[in-house]
Amino acid sequence: MYAINSDFSCIFAPLLGFVKINKSIPHNYYILTAVLIALMCFFNSCSEKPCELECLNGGKCIDGTCFCPNGFTGENCSTPVDSLIVTNTDTIYIVTDPCEDVICENGGICLNGTCDCPTGYMGDLCEMTYAEGLEGTYDVSVADCQPTSYTSALTAINSEMLSLSNFRDFNDSILLELVLIPENDSLLVNTQQINAGGLEYLVNGAGNIDIDDQSFTLELIYELFGNIEQCVETYTLQ
């Protein structure tokens, strides 16, 4: 019998049925052999199943399944895994691990080259607490109260406490303490007595932090001589 594992045999082997190679063997034997080879080639070519998804990153589709090079996985080889240099089907693939040079701090985990920080930490490498990362000078816009805009500074006292100066444009020496609650990106303002311009205010409230934008919003309640004033103040880092 003739080999059927090459395109050459599949194309030319059937023709041998019409050629008398060995006169001691009946001609019908060659014809039968050619027919069998042709049928086997036909069914072999038709049995290859296509892959539902295109194989990516050098993956090869074999009988309906993507076979991925080392460094990639998934139904269509779209998901990178930790590998560097691998070979597949005589081709060398160089796969760069995006987390190779990324060292996340404070328990952060590198995911596809970016640090996923635990609660309470921020920064490219999770190197800062929320309190440290929020420090700075802010532009403030105010709804429902006066003044409607001013600047204020936020300073970290510790990992859970912040000090806000010049809030409501009083002056830099008047401070409002904020309690940081990292678990839900929120702030708490416990009731405090603030002396400003010879007047005594009672101030309390709460707020929310947008860590990605390094901004926060406070809803504060000011009480003066029994009168209540509610203000929504948005702080945007300069």
Notable characteristics:
mainly beta, Laminin, 4 domains, 8-stranded antiparallel barrel, two-stranded antiparallel ribbon, 3 helices, 18 strands, disordered N terminus
Descriptive notes:
The protein has 238 residues and is mainly β. It has 4 domains: 7-46; 60-94, no CATH class; 98-133, Laminin (Ribbon), CATH 2.10.25; 135-237, Lipocalin, CATH 2.40.128. The protein has 3 helices and 18 strands. The strands form 6 sheets. An 8-stranded antiparallel beta barrel has the order 11-12-13-14-15-16-17-18. A two-stranded antiparallel sheet has the order 1-2. The chain is rod-shaped, with a radius of gyration of 37 Å. The relative contact order is 0.08.
Task: Give the SSE map.
Blueprint: H1 7-12, H2 27-46, E1 60-62, E2 65-67, E3 72-73, E4 79-80, E5 85-88, E6 91-94, E7 109-111, E8 114-116, E9 121-122, E10 128-129, H3 130-134, E11 136-143, E12 149-156, E13 161-165, E14 175-181, E15 186-196, E16 199-210, E17 215-224, E18 227-237
Antiparallel strand pairs: 1-2, 3-4, 5-6, 7-8, 9-10, 11-12, 11-18, 12-13, 13-14, 14-15, 15-16, 16-17, 17-18
Concise synopsis of the structure shown:
The protein has 238 residues and is mainly β. The chain is built from three helices and 18 strands. It folds into four domains: 7-46; 60-94, no CATH class; 98-133, Laminin (Ribbon), CATH 2.10.25; 135-237, Lipocalin.
